[in-house]
């Protein structure tokens, strides 16, 4: 089986964007691939975090992974900081990448602006070297595919560049990964400002569907979602971003194409659209939330994470040794 790896940063609560862009697809892939999924807590601390909130978000995402259907018997689901080798390989890859290429990362450009505003005076260095740690996460396990939303594609492409560079310069230590972006290039947009992506770090909670939102809250958020004044249900992200976003959410959750969704709403109005989206969201999220409640305080999650980390550590240790050998990071060999 080919390997596949992905992660979510616990810098906030898990959103519908995270689920549709990454986790839902992982659940569908886990029989066919050797799947690794982790909680990227080392990435979370690239922006200032309150430690209690970080812990809570970490615990929440862990329980949600399993509640969404990741199966601890099939997939390796772990906490990034439990596998120390990630940081070590991340350091090594820092030395193999350039300030120029890291400066071109659009996420860095966006986040550094926001973080600067928040911290008033500084941009953490970790925010800049974030992608090299992400490259370490991926290259550590010889992953062939990296299922991510389109917003993370650039980071996976940088990972490829770094891997190819190291392989050429030293020896073939890394497998070259590929981003796995869904066919319809899923990018779930902010409900209040559909020109930007739905992001867990957004300051307007009305704009985001969280995986743990109660049905009433979901209904209210969808009802208040920005559309346009045409009252015409048509998929056109450029001119009708709000409506198109709702259509996309519906189509993915129903496992139908956008064309089929469009047909479904022929002759209908925005109220129908919103009612349908609300209904399918509640249908999908309620059972996940029920499982989540059962898992959140059970010892099972902790045990599953620990078992997976033990397995991941063994592999990471081997890979790191290989890389260290390739670079001459040992006294005698
Ligand atoms: P993060 O936590 O921002 O997002 C987790 C996953 O959700 C996807 N995603 C979205 N997809 C569609 N629409 C949206 N609005 C939306 N928002 C987020 C993201 O594309 C991602 O797949 N750097 C990563 C975490 C990471 C990682 C890795 C991922 C660290 N190391 C190695 C893959 C492989 C991040 O912060 O994702």
TrEMBL record:
Chain sites annotated for binding L-tryptophan: 137
One cellular-component annotation, GO: cytosol
Cell location: Cytoplasm
Reaction catalyzed: tRNA(Trp) + L-tryptophan + ATP = L-tryptophyl-tRNA(Trp) + AMP + diphosphate + H(+)
Binding site for ATP: 9-11, 17-18, 149-151, 188, 197-201
EC identifiers of the protein: 6.1.1.2
GO molecular function: ATP binding; tryptophan-tRNA ligase activity
TM ranges: none
Record family assignment: Belongs to the class-I aminoacyl-tRNA synthetase family.
Protein name: Tryptophan--tRNA ligase
Gene: trpS
